[in-house]
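[Discussion] Sanity-checking designs against the backbone

I'm trying to build intuition for which residues belong where. Below is a C-alpha coordinate string of 369 positions. I'd appreciate it if someone posts a full sequence so I can compare it with mine line by line.
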Protein backbone atom coordinates (compact mmCIF):
# COMPACT_ATOMS: atom_id res chain seq x y z
CA UNK A 1 0.00 0.00 0.00
CA UNK A 2 1.49 3.40 -0.96
CA UNK A 3 2.56 5.80 1.77
CA UNK A 4 0.26 8.70 2.56
CA UNK A 5 1.26 11.88 0.75
CA UNK A 6 0.92 15.56 1.64
CA UNK A 7 -1.45 17.43 -0.68
CA UNK A 8 0.16 20.67 -1.88
CA UNK A 9 -3.16 21.76 -3.38
CA UNK A 10 -4.24 22.67 0.17
CA UNK A 11 -1.49 25.27 0.58
CA UNK A 12 -2.25 28.98 0.81
CA UNK A 13 0.15 30.30 -1.83
CA UNK A 14 0.86 34.04 -1.70
CA UNK A 15 2.11 36.45 -4.35
CA UNK A 16 5.84 37.07 -4.43
CA UNK A 17 5.29 40.83 -4.41
CA UNK A 18 4.16 40.59 -0.78
CA UNK A 19 7.39 38.97 0.44
CA UNK A 20 10.07 40.89 2.29
CA UNK A 21 13.52 40.42 0.70
CA UNK A 22 17.03 40.95 2.01
CA UNK A 23 19.03 41.32 -1.22
CA UNK A 24 18.35 43.92 -3.92
CA UNK A 25 20.30 43.31 -7.09
CA UNK A 26 20.68 46.93 -8.24
CA UNK A 27 21.99 47.89 -4.80
CA UNK A 28 23.97 44.77 -3.97
CA UNK A 29 25.46 43.58 -7.27
CA UNK A 30 29.25 43.71 -7.41
CA UNK A 31 30.85 45.26 -10.52
CA UNK A 32 33.57 43.11 -12.03
CA UNK A 33 36.02 46.02 -11.65
CA UNK A 34 35.65 46.21 -7.86
CA UNK A 35 38.91 45.60 -6.00
CA UNK A 36 39.01 42.27 -4.08
CA UNK A 37 39.60 42.92 -0.38
CA UNK A 38 40.94 39.82 1.34
CA UNK A 39 43.18 37.74 -0.87
CA UNK A 40 46.34 36.52 0.87
CA UNK A 41 49.74 36.41 -0.79
CA UNK A 42 49.44 32.65 -1.10
CA UNK A 43 45.96 33.09 -2.52
CA UNK A 44 47.22 35.48 -5.17
CA UNK A 45 49.76 32.87 -6.28
CA UNK A 46 47.08 30.17 -6.59
CA UNK A 47 44.78 32.52 -8.50
CA UNK A 48 47.58 33.52 -10.86
CA UNK A 49 48.37 29.85 -11.48
CA UNK A 50 44.69 29.15 -12.12
CA UNK A 51 44.47 32.05 -14.57
CA UNK A 52 47.46 30.69 -16.46
CA UNK A 53 45.85 27.25 -16.58
CA UNK A 54 42.64 28.80 -17.95
CA UNK A 55 44.56 30.70 -20.63
CA UNK A 56 46.31 27.51 -21.70
CA UNK A 57 43.05 25.52 -21.69
CA UNK A 58 41.39 28.16 -23.85
CA UNK A 59 44.30 28.03 -26.28
CA UNK A 60 43.91 24.24 -26.49
CA UNK A 61 40.12 24.36 -26.72
CA UNK A 62 39.60 22.43 -23.48
CA UNK A 63 36.88 22.78 -20.84
CA UNK A 64 37.02 25.60 -18.30
CA UNK A 65 34.28 24.81 -15.80
CA UNK A 66 32.99 26.91 -12.91
CA UNK A 67 30.62 25.29 -10.43
CA UNK A 68 29.19 27.20 -7.49
CA UNK A 69 26.66 27.28 -4.69
CA UNK A 70 23.73 29.68 -4.52
CA UNK A 71 25.56 32.27 -2.42
CA UNK A 72 27.66 33.22 -5.43
CA UNK A 73 24.44 34.49 -7.03
CA UNK A 74 23.05 35.96 -3.78
CA UNK A 75 26.31 37.83 -3.25
CA UNK A 76 25.73 39.79 -6.45
CA UNK A 77 28.44 38.18 -8.56
CA UNK A 78 26.38 38.04 -11.77
CA UNK A 79 28.38 40.81 -13.51
CA UNK A 80 31.63 38.89 -13.05
CA UNK A 81 30.13 35.53 -14.04
CA UNK A 82 28.63 37.12 -17.15
CA UNK A 83 31.94 38.77 -18.04
CA UNK A 84 33.78 35.45 -17.67
CA UNK A 85 31.52 33.70 -20.19
CA UNK A 86 31.20 36.68 -22.53
CA UNK A 87 34.96 36.93 -22.84
CA UNK A 88 35.34 33.20 -23.37
CA UNK A 89 37.25 32.37 -20.20
CA UNK A 90 34.62 29.94 -18.92
CA UNK A 91 32.91 27.31 -21.09
CA UNK A 92 30.51 25.80 -18.56
CA UNK A 93 28.68 27.12 -15.49
CA UNK A 94 26.87 24.88 -13.00
CA UNK A 95 24.92 25.51 -9.81
CA UNK A 96 22.28 23.97 -7.59
CA UNK A 97 18.53 24.57 -7.65
CA UNK A 98 18.74 27.53 -5.27
CA UNK A 99 21.22 29.30 -7.54
CA UNK A 100 18.69 29.09 -10.37
CA UNK A 101 15.94 30.48 -8.14
CA UNK A 102 17.88 33.48 -6.86
CA UNK A 103 19.06 34.33 -10.37
CA UNK A 104 15.46 34.13 -11.65
CA UNK A 105 14.02 36.22 -8.80
CA UNK A 106 16.62 38.91 -9.45
CA UNK A 107 15.69 38.97 -13.15
CA UNK A 108 11.96 38.96 -12.41
CA UNK A 109 11.68 41.42 -9.52
CA UNK A 110 15.19 42.71 -8.79
CA UNK A 111 15.29 41.23 -5.29
CA UNK A 112 15.57 37.87 -3.53
CA UNK A 113 16.36 36.09 -0.24
CA UNK A 114 13.54 35.85 2.27
CA UNK A 115 13.70 35.62 6.07
CA UNK A 116 13.65 31.86 6.57
CA UNK A 117 13.18 31.83 10.36
CA UNK A 118 10.31 34.31 10.27
CA UNK A 119 8.51 32.70 7.33
CA UNK A 120 8.78 29.12 8.60
CA UNK A 121 7.13 30.34 11.81
CA UNK A 122 4.35 31.85 9.69
CA UNK A 123 4.04 28.72 7.54
CA UNK A 124 4.98 30.79 4.52
CA UNK A 125 8.63 30.02 3.75
CA UNK A 126 9.01 29.24 0.07
CA UNK A 127 5.28 29.22 -0.62
CA UNK A 128 5.24 31.98 -3.24
CA UNK A 129 3.16 31.88 -6.38
CA UNK A 130 5.36 33.64 -8.93
CA UNK A 131 8.58 31.75 -8.18
CA UNK A 132 6.86 28.39 -7.88
CA UNK A 133 4.49 28.87 -10.79
CA UNK A 134 6.82 30.33 -13.42
CA UNK A 135 9.98 28.31 -12.72
CA UNK A 136 8.06 25.04 -12.50
CA UNK A 137 6.11 25.85 -15.65
CA UNK A 138 9.32 26.73 -17.50
CA UNK A 139 10.75 23.36 -16.48
CA UNK A 140 7.67 21.42 -17.63
CA UNK A 141 7.73 23.27 -20.96
CA UNK A 142 11.49 22.78 -21.20
CA UNK A 143 11.16 19.06 -20.53
CA UNK A 144 8.73 18.83 -23.45
CA UNK A 145 11.16 20.79 -25.64
CA UNK A 146 14.07 18.53 -24.67
CA UNK A 147 15.94 21.27 -22.81
CA UNK A 148 17.95 21.23 -19.60
CA UNK A 149 16.84 22.67 -16.26
CA UNK A 150 19.00 25.82 -16.40
CA UNK A 151 18.41 26.23 -20.12
CA UNK A 152 14.62 26.13 -19.64
CA UNK A 153 14.69 28.97 -17.13
CA UNK A 154 17.28 30.95 -19.10
CA UNK A 155 15.11 30.73 -22.21
CA UNK A 156 12.07 32.01 -20.30
CA UNK A 157 14.05 34.96 -18.97
CA UNK A 158 15.50 35.82 -22.38
CA UNK A 159 12.19 35.75 -24.27
CA UNK A 160 10.31 37.12 -21.24
CA UNK A 161 7.68 34.44 -21.53
CA UNK A 162 6.75 30.88 -22.45
CA UNK A 163 5.14 29.36 -25.52
CA UNK A 164 2.23 27.22 -24.34
CA UNK A 165 1.04 24.58 -26.86
CA UNK A 166 -2.59 23.57 -27.32
CA UNK A 167 -3.63 20.58 -25.23
CA UNK A 168 -5.13 18.88 -28.27
CA UNK A 169 -1.84 19.10 -30.18
CA UNK A 170 0.06 17.66 -27.21
CA UNK A 171 -2.23 14.65 -26.95
CA UNK A 172 -2.01 14.16 -30.70
CA UNK A 173 1.78 14.24 -30.54
CA UNK A 174 1.76 11.78 -27.64
CA UNK A 175 -0.47 9.43 -29.62
CA UNK A 176 1.81 9.60 -32.67
CA UNK A 177 5.09 9.16 -30.80
CA UNK A 178 4.24 6.82 -27.93
CA UNK A 179 5.71 3.77 -29.65
CA UNK A 180 8.64 5.29 -31.51
CA UNK A 181 9.63 7.81 -28.80
CA UNK A 182 7.85 7.22 -25.49
CA UNK A 183 9.93 9.87 -23.68
CA UNK A 184 8.60 12.59 -25.97
CA UNK A 185 5.08 11.23 -25.59
CA UNK A 186 5.34 11.21 -21.80
CA UNK A 187 6.67 14.76 -21.67
CA UNK A 188 3.84 15.93 -23.94
CA UNK A 189 1.24 14.29 -21.69
CA UNK A 190 2.85 15.81 -18.58
CA UNK A 191 2.66 19.29 -20.07
CA UNK A 192 -0.93 18.75 -21.19
CA UNK A 193 -1.86 17.68 -17.67
CA UNK A 194 -0.31 20.80 -16.14
CA UNK A 195 -2.03 23.08 -18.67
CA UNK A 196 -5.38 21.51 -17.90
CA UNK A 197 -5.00 21.45 -14.12
CA UNK A 198 -4.02 25.11 -13.92
CA UNK A 199 -6.28 26.27 -16.76
CA UNK A 200 -3.40 27.84 -18.71
CA UNK A 201 -4.22 29.43 -22.07
CA UNK A 202 -2.35 28.34 -25.18
CA UNK A 203 -0.16 30.81 -27.02
CA UNK A 204 2.63 33.04 -25.77
CA UNK A 205 2.48 33.74 -22.04
CA UNK A 206 4.14 37.11 -21.44
CA UNK A 207 6.31 37.16 -18.29
CA UNK A 208 8.26 40.43 -17.95
CA UNK A 209 11.80 40.23 -16.56
CA UNK A 210 12.79 43.90 -16.19
CA UNK A 211 16.12 43.09 -14.52
CA UNK A 212 17.26 40.34 -16.90
CA UNK A 213 20.56 42.11 -17.57
CA UNK A 214 21.57 40.82 -14.12
CA UNK A 215 20.69 37.22 -15.01
CA UNK A 216 23.54 34.77 -15.51
CA UNK A 217 21.10 32.23 -16.94
CA UNK A 218 19.88 34.67 -19.57
CA UNK A 219 23.41 35.61 -20.59
CA UNK A 220 24.41 31.95 -20.81
CA UNK A 221 21.36 31.17 -22.96
CA UNK A 222 22.17 34.02 -25.37
CA UNK A 223 25.84 33.00 -25.57
CA UNK A 224 24.98 29.29 -25.93
CA UNK A 225 27.18 28.54 -22.92
CA UNK A 226 25.94 25.61 -20.86
CA UNK A 227 24.61 26.75 -17.49
CA UNK A 228 23.42 23.57 -15.85
CA UNK A 229 21.41 23.03 -12.69
CA UNK A 230 21.87 20.04 -10.41
CA UNK A 231 18.97 20.03 -7.95
CA UNK A 232 17.93 17.55 -5.29
CA UNK A 233 14.28 16.78 -4.68
CA UNK A 234 12.84 18.79 -1.82
CA UNK A 235 15.87 21.08 -1.45
CA UNK A 236 14.35 24.14 -3.13
CA UNK A 237 11.29 26.29 -2.57
CA UNK A 238 9.77 25.44 -5.96
CA UNK A 239 8.90 22.00 -4.53
CA UNK A 240 6.37 23.74 -2.28
CA UNK A 241 4.22 24.85 -5.20
CA UNK A 242 1.36 22.66 -6.50
CA UNK A 243 2.61 23.05 -10.09
CA UNK A 244 5.93 21.36 -9.27
CA UNK A 245 6.28 18.30 -11.49
CA UNK A 246 8.72 15.54 -10.53
CA UNK A 247 9.02 13.96 -13.97
CA UNK A 248 9.83 17.30 -15.59
CA UNK A 249 12.44 18.03 -12.92
CA UNK A 250 13.97 14.63 -13.59
CA UNK A 251 14.05 15.01 -17.37
CA UNK A 252 15.59 18.48 -17.39
CA UNK A 253 18.04 17.79 -14.56
CA UNK A 254 19.21 14.61 -16.29
CA UNK A 255 19.75 16.57 -19.51
CA UNK A 256 21.85 19.01 -17.52
CA UNK A 257 23.88 16.26 -15.88
CA UNK A 258 24.64 14.75 -19.29
CA UNK A 259 25.72 18.19 -20.54
CA UNK A 260 27.89 18.59 -17.44
CA UNK A 261 29.45 15.18 -18.05
CA UNK A 262 30.15 16.07 -21.67
CA UNK A 263 32.15 19.09 -20.48
CA UNK A 264 33.98 16.96 -17.90
CA UNK A 265 34.93 14.54 -20.69
CA UNK A 266 36.90 17.42 -22.26
CA UNK A 267 38.89 18.22 -19.10
CA UNK A 268 42.24 16.81 -20.23
CA UNK A 269 44.46 19.94 -19.95
CA UNK A 270 41.35 21.77 -18.77
CA UNK A 271 40.28 23.54 -15.57
CA UNK A 272 37.56 22.77 -13.02
CA UNK A 273 36.72 25.28 -10.29
CA UNK A 274 34.31 24.64 -7.43
CA UNK A 275 33.21 27.59 -5.29
CA UNK A 276 31.22 27.22 -2.08
CA UNK A 277 29.65 23.89 -2.96
CA UNK A 278 30.26 21.28 -0.27
CA UNK A 279 27.90 18.62 -1.64
CA UNK A 280 26.55 19.22 -5.15
CA UNK A 281 29.78 19.95 -7.02
CA UNK A 282 31.96 17.10 -5.67
CA UNK A 283 29.15 14.56 -5.92
CA UNK A 284 28.30 15.23 -9.57
CA UNK A 285 31.94 15.65 -10.54
CA UNK A 286 33.08 12.25 -9.31
CA UNK A 287 30.33 10.45 -11.25
CA UNK A 288 30.86 12.53 -14.38
CA UNK A 289 34.61 11.98 -14.30
CA UNK A 290 34.20 8.24 -13.79
CA UNK A 291 31.92 8.00 -16.84
CA UNK A 292 34.29 10.17 -18.85
CA UNK A 293 37.27 8.00 -17.87
CA UNK A 294 35.30 4.90 -18.84
CA UNK A 295 34.84 6.13 -22.40
CA UNK A 296 38.36 7.58 -22.62
CA UNK A 297 39.89 4.26 -21.57
CA UNK A 298 37.93 2.45 -24.27
CA UNK A 299 39.59 4.81 -26.73
CA UNK A 300 43.05 4.14 -25.33
CA UNK A 301 43.20 7.47 -23.51
CA UNK A 302 42.95 8.77 -19.94
CA UNK A 303 42.08 12.08 -18.28
CA UNK A 304 45.09 12.88 -16.11
CA UNK A 305 46.05 16.52 -16.65
CA UNK A 306 43.05 18.33 -15.25
CA UNK A 307 43.56 21.25 -12.86
CA UNK A 308 41.08 21.64 -9.98
CA UNK A 309 40.74 24.64 -7.67
CA UNK A 310 38.37 24.34 -4.72
CA UNK A 311 37.34 27.58 -3.00
CA UNK A 312 35.46 27.90 0.28
CA UNK A 313 35.42 29.85 3.53
CA UNK A 314 36.51 26.94 5.72
CA UNK A 315 40.13 27.21 6.78
CA UNK A 316 42.54 24.40 5.99
CA UNK A 317 46.31 24.34 6.42
CA UNK A 318 46.61 20.93 4.81
CA UNK A 319 48.56 20.75 1.57
CA UNK A 320 46.31 18.46 -0.48
CA UNK A 321 48.55 18.47 -3.52
CA UNK A 322 51.72 17.65 -1.63
CA UNK A 323 50.48 15.45 1.22
CA UNK A 324 47.43 13.75 -0.27
CA UNK A 325 44.51 12.74 1.94
CA UNK A 326 44.95 13.63 5.65
CA UNK A 327 44.61 11.07 8.46
CA UNK A 328 41.25 10.77 10.25
CA UNK A 329 42.55 12.54 13.37
CA UNK A 330 43.21 15.71 11.34
CA UNK A 331 40.30 18.19 11.01
CA UNK A 332 41.13 18.60 7.32
CA UNK A 333 39.95 15.02 6.76
CA UNK A 334 36.41 16.21 7.37
CA UNK A 335 36.49 18.77 4.57
CA UNK A 336 34.58 16.18 2.58
CA UNK A 337 34.60 18.12 -0.67
CA UNK A 338 38.39 18.45 -0.60
CA UNK A 339 38.71 14.74 0.11
CA UNK A 340 36.45 13.93 -2.82
CA UNK A 341 38.29 16.14 -5.29
CA UNK A 342 41.67 14.92 -4.06
CA UNK A 343 40.62 11.42 -5.13
CA UNK A 344 39.91 12.58 -8.69
CA UNK A 345 43.47 12.52 -10.01
CA UNK A 346 44.91 15.55 -11.77
CA UNK A 347 46.16 18.53 -9.77
CA UNK A 348 44.07 19.95 -6.92
CA UNK A 349 44.46 23.09 -4.82
CA UNK A 350 42.32 24.48 -2.02
CA UNK A 351 41.87 28.19 -1.39
CA UNK A 352 40.22 29.75 1.63
CA UNK A 353 38.47 32.85 0.29
CA UNK A 354 35.16 34.67 -0.02
CA UNK A 355 33.58 33.90 -3.40
CA UNK A 356 33.38 37.62 -4.20
CA UNK A 357 37.08 38.20 -3.64
CA UNK A 358 38.09 35.08 -5.53
CA UNK A 359 35.97 35.72 -8.62
CA UNK A 360 36.98 39.38 -8.80
CA UNK A 361 40.66 38.52 -8.47
CA UNK A 362 40.42 35.74 -11.04
CA UNK A 363 38.57 37.81 -13.61
CA UNK A 364 40.86 40.81 -13.18
CA UNK A 365 43.92 38.61 -13.56
CA UNK A 366 42.52 37.07 -16.76
CA UNK A 367 41.52 40.43 -18.20
CA UNK A 368 44.62 42.28 -16.98
CA UNK A 369 42.54 44.87 -15.10
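Best answer:
Here's mine. Compare freely.
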Amino acid sequence: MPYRKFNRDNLSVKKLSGRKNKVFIERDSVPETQHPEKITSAGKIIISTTADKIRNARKLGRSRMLTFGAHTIKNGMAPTLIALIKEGWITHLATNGAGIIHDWEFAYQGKSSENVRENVELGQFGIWDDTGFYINLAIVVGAYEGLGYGESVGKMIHFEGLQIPKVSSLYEEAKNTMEANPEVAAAAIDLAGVIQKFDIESGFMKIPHPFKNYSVQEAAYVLNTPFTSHPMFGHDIIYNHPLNHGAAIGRTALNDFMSFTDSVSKLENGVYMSIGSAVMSPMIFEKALSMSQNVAIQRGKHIDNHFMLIVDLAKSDWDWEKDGEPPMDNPAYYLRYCKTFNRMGGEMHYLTADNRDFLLALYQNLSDI
